[in-house]
Every structure is written in C-alpha cells, then in structure tokens.
Write a structure and sequence with these properties.
Two copies of one chain form a homodimer.
Chain A lengths: L5 H10 L2 H9 L3 H10 L2 H9 L7 H8 L2 H10 L2 H8 L4 H10 L2 H11 L6 H4 L6 E3 L4 H11 L8 E5 L5 E6 H6 L6 H4 L7 E2 L4 H11 L3 E5 L5 E6 H19 L12 H27 L2 H6 L7 H24 L8 H31 L2 H31 L9 H22 L1 H4 L1
Parallel strand pairs in A: 1-2, 4-5
Antiparallel strand pairs in A: 2-3, 5-6
C-alpha cells in the first residue's frame, strides 16, 4: 500500500485467500482503507467483506467510509446470507437507503432474507443454490450446473423441484458424475431428501447437519417450497458460537470471545454480572447475620462457612453443566424431566454421603470434636443433595418454560446454593446448639 | 426384525440414512443385533458402524458379537479414519488379530493411521483422497475422478502431486467443471495450496478449516509429501468435542456430554473433583481457623465471608474463561503475556473499585458501622484485583508451560481465590481490630 502502486498492490493482494485479505484489511488505518476501496472493485471488496469477523461493530464504520453506490454494489455482490449479516448491524434507515440504490434483483433477495428471525434457519440460509426440474437428463443438469457454478454458494448438491417449486429430490454432484449423461434425473435423484423448516432453530439445524454429515441442507416453507440452502461453513460458525455462548454464561460474562480493547471495555462486560452477584451475596450475608447470636456463642462455626458454601456451589455447577449440555444436544426431550431430577437426586445423595463421611472424619481428627464433625458432615450431605437437585432442576424448568437454560449461569446457581447451604448449616447448628458449647 | 423376513428388513433398513440406521441399531437387544449381522453384508454394516456415536465402549461389545472374519471385512470397508477410531478403543492384541485376517491393503492403510498420536491431524485424517499428476488434462482428471468417486471420502477437491508424491497444487471439482476438457491441469490448479502438518494439533486444524471455509484440508509430512486429507465433517466433530471439553473443565466434571446410565455412573464422574475440592476447602477452613481469635471478638466478620469469597470466585472464573478462550482461538500468541496480565489487572482494579464503593455504602447503611463498611469495601477491592489477575495468570502460565490451561478449571481458580480473599479480609481485620470493637 505504501508503494502507491495500484497494479502491484492488486497483484499481491488478490493472490491471497479472502480470509487473509480480510485479516489484512481490518488491521489498516482509516486512510489506507480509503486506498483499498479505491484500488478494488465492489466485487473484490465483497469477498473481503464476507470474511471479516465483525467484533466491534466495524461493518458500519467501513460502510460509512465507502461511496454509497460502491457500498451498495458490494453488498449486492456478496452472498446474500453474508450481506444480510452485515445489514442486520445497521439502522433500518441505512438498510433501506442501500437497498434503494442496489439493483432490484439483489435488493429483493436481501429484503426477503431480512424478514427471518435471528437464530432461525431462515436467518443463516442463502438463496444462491442450484435447482433443476425432474424431467431432465444428467447431461442437461451438468450444463445448468456449469452456468450457475460461478454464482452458487455450493454446487455439490443440486435440488430437484416440481412445477410448483416444491422440493421433490436431491442429487449430489458425485452422483451426476458417476452416471451416464443420458440418464434421467428422476432415475438417479434421491427422493428421501432431508430438509429443515425456515423457522427451525439454528442449533437444531446444526445438530442435523453434524449428525448426518451433510455439506448443505435445503430450507423449505410450510408448504414444502424450496426457499434456500444452509451450507456447512455457516453451521461450523453456529456450533462455535453456541458453544462459546454456553461457556460465557457458565462463567457469567457477556461475551467471552469478543476482542477487548482494554481494561475498560473488559470491565464493562463483566461488571453488570458482578454487581448483580454482589447484591445476591449481600443477601447471603444478611442471612448469616440472622444467626449472629449462634455465631457469637460458637465462633468456630464460621470456619466451615466457605467449605460448605463452596461445595454447594461446585456440585451445583456440575449438575447445571450436565443439564445445560443435555438440553443443548437435544437429549432432554427423550427422558422425562422427573426421571432426570430423580437421577440427579440420587447422584447428590451418593456424592453427599461420601463427602459427608470424609468431612466428619477430618473435622473430628482436626478439632477433636465429634459433634462438630457430625454437624459439618450432615450439613455437607444435605447441602450436596439439595444443591445437585437445584443445579439440574432450575435449567430444566427454564427449558420447559422456553427460557434459554444457560442464562441460569454458574454463579447464579452458586449463589442460590450458597443461600441453601447456609440455611441448612446454621439452621442445624442453632437446633443442636446444646451439643456444641 | 420381528417379521423374520430378510428381504423386507433389508428394503426398509437400507433405505434409511446411515445415521438413522446406526440410531436404530444401537437401540437393539443383543439377539436382534445378531439377526442384523446376519442380514447385512460387511460393507453395509460398515456404513452403520461409521455412524455410531460410541459413548459407553460399545464398539468392543458389537465386534465381539460378530464372526471375526465378518468384523475384519467390515473394518476394512469402513473409511480408514473411522476404522481407526474404532480400533483405538480395543486392546492391542485384538487390533492385531483383526489386522491379520484383513486383506493386506486395508490393513496397511489402517496400520499407518494407528501410528499417529491422538488429537493430531494424523489421527483424524483419512487416506481415501483423490490425487493426480500435473501433466494431465481436465478431461483425464475427470475420468480418474469418475473411477475413484465411489471410494473417496470427498471428490470435491483433487490434489496435484509431483513424481515424488509432493503436494504441488489443488483443484476443486467446481474448477474442473467450468473449464474446457482439454485444458491442462497446470493451468487451472491453484499452487497456493493450504495444508497442515501431520503432527499439527487438531484444534489448530479446526481453526484453519473454520476460518478459510474449506471442505477438506490436505495433510503433509515434514518433507511435503501428501499423506491424507481431513474433511469438514470430522472438523465439525472436533469443534464440538473441544468446546464440550472446555465446558466440562469449567464445570469441574470429567465428561459433561457422555450419556450416563444413572446416579452411580454420574457420581463416579463428579466425585474425584468434589473430593479434591473438599480438601482444598478444608485448607481454606484451616486458614480461617487461624483467625479464630479475631472471629471470637468480632463475630459479625463471619457474615461477610461468603460474600467476599464468592466475589473472588466469580471474578476469577470470568478472567479464567476469557484467558482459556483466548488461548483456544489462538489469540494468545499475538499479544505478550505481560500485556494481557496488565489488562486483567486494570480490569480487576476498575471492577474492584466500583464493587468496593458499593459494598462500603451498603454495609454502612445496613450495619451503621463505617469502619466495618470500609474494611469490607477495601477487602472487595483488593480481592477482586488479585483474583482477576490470578484467574488470567494461572491459565496463561500453564499454556506457556505447554499444559492444557483448561485444566485450571473454574472450581480450582475459585478455591485459590477463596484462600486469597480470606487472607486479605482477615489479615486486614486483625490489623485494624481496634476500630472494629
């Protein structure tokens, strides 16, 4: 870029993989970006834009730097699903103005895709697929394919539709190649074609694609019309996003993956959670405050507060993680909620009994006080059992209520279990006070 | 199956997608499985086996139920990478005996793949790829492709090698189709071919495949010879596995995803962690025990133990999650460890100051004691700062030491931060005792 030589720049730049082009582009300063817009055609810029991983709402900045007509042409030449991702970051007014200066066909395609809700199959599908009618030969299908190959997002599946645009079959390029040119499509196409509904959750689409090892899946409306396709590269992103989302929530942080500019932006992402947890923690503290009298008499009780609360938090997090993942991989429907809770209750009872016995022994040896040992041990037993059930019960109930169960993040379950454990521990201590002093 | 009619069963069964065949198969009772082995050819059984998601070491059970020759033929007809996955679950003796009764070519191929370490590119690659020499035309390449299509795992990339089997280029089926039959391969092939080394970590392979949207990546040895390919369907599984692995570790549970048979097997997976954490918790308790005198004098101090320890745990988990993910997505190399720690220190200081001020105010209003408020507030400030640094520092150092940083799971960081927070809190309380009584 520094050489100011347009040909040299184009030679070197365009030889790179678009992903590397994008990586190079996002590192540029504003004035160098202007040069790039100048040096590249809208179509070349489109493939750069398709590969930008937008983290800090940079799409809007880049678009505002371009000439509006250049930006509109670039958007029109992007794969429609990627263009929609970009436009979803903008204000409605801006979207409308880009769509008006775009050519009608591209604008229409994008407008349709913009309708679909986020996280549905419709929002990640593309309309650049290849479809043919059934009354053709392998040879003529290959001809269509050759013509459409430069524009289609994948050419490895060709979808067969009837006069009404209903999806009736699929044929892979592999099948086209190994069959004789004069074979009829009806003879070689697979009529058992897997498809997803346009309103289907993207996680469910990812699951099907992963299980069946498809490279693309067709998307249909409720009457069976073919609307678009979802390709495996989009699904890889979905799987990655959803996993990072669950992970972020378990760690109580709004988005673990986005690149942070420094301590202030990092603090901004973590503080809301910390402040909520702080007030929940104050509530726990006020609960202990109610037992001040007990504490005054037997100060040693305080020693075991973090142990008991901590164990409740740990076991609750384990149960939570299992429940969230079970829901995520779709196993939750196969078993009754009741049976899962029962299993967790059993798990809590087993782990609680073993940890409880261990604690009783250790406290007895350490403090030489069997009553204290038994008190702490039984608290651990009761706490672990209840905390395990709570860890599983809360996300499962949220799932039935159609709330994303991962919102019940680790620290929330931990705090709830802190409260439960302290009530159990001090409740019992107050009850059996006579044996402790 | 109940009808005992072999033709009817084969008609219905073989029409299903292999993934559905596998789902059906794993639900069968032992005697029904025997019928299936009887009704299907080794090749048909191979595609069922490729789609089984083994969770409870069932591969071994199924194989032992089959005639050894049937099993060996089936393994030979599976894609080599899938066969290796199955064989990796068996004893070395069993593997050797299956390989001896297998035909030599398949045995050789499998034997080579068995050499590679788990989690490397070599362990997930397959040897069923299509390669051609550069001195051919598009037409002759298409002929080779037609012949090999039924056996290759993917036909969408064809790799170009020289006489020495070194990888020199790649051409996609898309390019073959849109170019004229008499074009030379050298003219249309892409010489900038992305490849991975056979010893590369599978996570790194997944990252490249995801970033560049490849459907397959060639695997080469250190001298550039083409050894195999990795297809996107295997990568989808890797991404899913690695994410679930990080998630499991954050929740301190050995494998969050595997289907559990009941409370006993669930307890078995969680107990080891719980017991380790229990002893770490006992250590925390013994620390508080050292401050018993302080506690005896000012029992109200105990009230804030879970709040302070809890906040330390929460902020540490946040910092840990950010550090683990940053390492996982490969950003760790780009910045210096020192700068990342500095950012985290800044983040801790900001969140600590804000939470500290909040706590001071709340405690002052609630307890009417400004000294207690300041003590708790300053403890929160110091704790959050140190805990945030610890949460980031520990995984980063582990990464430099080539230990998987996710092993520093949530609960471990939480426990370490419990200890730090209690030392700070009680240390300060003991120091400023005179203002508290």
């Amino acid at each position: 870029l520094s050489s100011q030589n347009i040909d040299e720049f184009r030679d070197v730049f365009l030889e790179q993989h678009p992903y590397d082009q994008a990586k190079f582009f996002v590192k540029l300063e504003e004035q160098d970006r202007f040069t790039v817009y100048h040096y590249l055609s809208p179509g070349e810029m489109a493939s750069v834009f398709e590969n930008i991983e937008d983290e800090n709402d940079q799409y809007e900045v880049y678009l505002s730097e371009m000439e509006p007509t250049f930006a509109a042409q670039m958007l029109a030449q992007m794969y429609a699903d990627d263009a929609v991702d970009v436009l979803n970051e903008l204000d409605k007014d801006q979207v409308a103005s880009y769509l008006t200066i775009m050519d009608d066909e591209a604008a229409e395609e994008i407008r349709e895709l913009l309708h679909y809700d986020e996280y549905t199959a419709g929002s990640i599908m593309t309309t650049e697929f290849i479809s043919i009618h059934a009354n053709q030969t392998v040879h003529s299908a290959m001809q269509i394919l050759k013509n459409e190959a430069p524009n289609a997002e994948t050419i490895y599946y060709i979808y067969v539709i009837d006069e009404d645009k209903k999806l009736v079959g699929v044929i892979s390029l592999r099948d086209l190649i190994i069959n004789e040119p004069d074979t009829m499509i009806t003879e070689v196409m697979n009529e058992r074609v897997y498809s997803v509904s346009v309103a289907e959750d993207q996680e469910e689409v990812a699951r099907q694609m992963k299980d069946y090892n498809f490279l693309a899946l067709p998307v249909i409306d409720f009457r069976g019309h073919l609307l678009g396709i979802i390709t495996v590269d989009d699904i890889v992103d979905v799987i990655d996003e959803e996993a990072s989302d669950d992970y972020s929530k378990l760690a109580a942080i709004s988005d673990v993956d986005s690149n942070d500019g420094g301590p202030f932006s990092a603090a901004k992402k973590r503080l809301p959670w910390l402040i909520i947890l702080l007030f929940l923690g104050m509530f726990t503290a006020s609960l202990i405050g109610r037992f001040e009298e007990t504490l005054d008499k037997v100060a040693i009780l305080a020693v075991f507060i973090p142990l008991i609360a901590g164990m409740a938090g740990n076991t609750g997090t384990q149960a939570l993680a299992v429940a969230v993942r079970r829901i995520a991989v779709g196993n939750a429907e196969e078993h009754s909620t009741f049976r899962m809770i029962l299993t967790e209750a059993g798990t809590g009872l087993i782990t609680g009994t073993i940890c409880g016995i261990l604690v009783t022994l250790v406290v007895f040896v350490w403090q030489g006080d069997i009553f204290l040992g038994i008190l702490v041990g039984i608290s651990i037993l009761a706490t672990l059992t209840v905390a395990t059930i709570a860890g599983a019960f809360i996300p499962l109930v949220m799932h039935r209520l159609k709330v994303d169960p991962a919102v019940a993040s680790g620290p929330f379950i931990t705090t709830i279990n802190d409260i439960i454990s302290i009530l159990i521990y001090f409740g019992m201590a107050t009850l059996f006070m006579q044996y402790l002093i």
